[in-house]
């Protein structure tokens, strides 16, 4: 994916002064971002968010969540082609969740009526992405640009803000991101035409307390830390020979292999060496592509060519099916989820994550439960939960230790 890092490193960004609220910063230069009106109003989205946050707050791991903790949202837009122009259409409401003055999570509610399960696209215990607006503004300024008035979200777990430069910036990693326009807003609608609840069904609250969960324990949640531009590389002990960050795909793959190799997040040198070697075996940033970009086609061979661990590996790319995810997780094997949020041309935007668990959410009068995947997002934030179909294009990468039998050994739904 096109995950190249600007000249200011993440560590440098972390030292900037925080304290300017997202609302104040954007209000100063906000203009009319779109003539479109959200199909789901702010009030309706807020009601949905409160219902789900209240239900999740009764479950293990979300004890700090309460329906009264849902704060005012920001509206994020999708870029959609309209004849020869680009139109910005409301895509999602993103709500911070705060316990008094402390952020304890976020929840993303669709601004499109056709989504189900209360319209919940993603949620997690990290800060709402707009809370990172000051840091992102500082990075834009350090590179000679400024942020504009539009938050961008096409799907998955990547949230951006437009700048006056050639790219938007990720609100989580402060890296340049491409948000290429899609042909229609419908292409970004999770689970597509599989479910079209009636008006009565949409009014019935979803019982989130009755959901089924399963997860793989012990998968590291990390990111890279050895930014740099060294003249030579001693893997894991010094800066990289490439200036920009290692890329989301090598980092996502490193968490999968780190799990199989028994690495801990505190194993600093081993972590950096693993990420760097995957960066090289996958050809990340080569062939004229943007730094940090990895072709999906190079993921399996890059994993299989990694030879410095205790294990050998088989890897394969497969189309997305819910059963492909649940069977792997149930078998104790994390999965790489590669999401593209625009027309995938080999260089356009997208993001890859490590899937470590899932949650099935049932809705009355809807036959098939909705799959939410628990993912490590490559930024070392708290895991996200992302709804199936929250993307424009997708592929899974399966990884299994090679015990001499060949193949991945698990029935695969293709």
Describe this structure as you would to a colleague.
20% of the residues lie in helices and 24% in strands. With 414 residues, it is an alpha+beta fold. The protein folds into two domains: 10-204, no CATH class; 215-401, Streptopain (SpeB) (Cathepsin B, Chain A, Alpha-Beta Complex), CATH 3.90.70.50.
- Overall structural domain count: 2
The strand count comes to 15
Look at the helices and sheets and give the structural class.
alpha+beta
Quick one: biggest sheet? 11 strands, antiparallel
Helical residue percent band: 10-25%
Strand coverage percent: 15-25%
User: What is the typical, i.e. mean, pLDDT?
Assistant: 81
Q: Tell me, briefly, the overall form.
A: globular
Could you state the oligomeric state of the chains shown?
Answer: single chain
What's the SSE pattern?
A: HHHEEEEHEEEEHEHHHEHEEEEE
Number of helices: 9
What distance lies between the first and last C-alpha atoms, to the nearest angstrom? Answer: 23 Å
Radius of gyration: 20 Å
Contiguous runs where pLDDT drops below 50 for at least 5 residues: 1-33, 344-348, 410-414
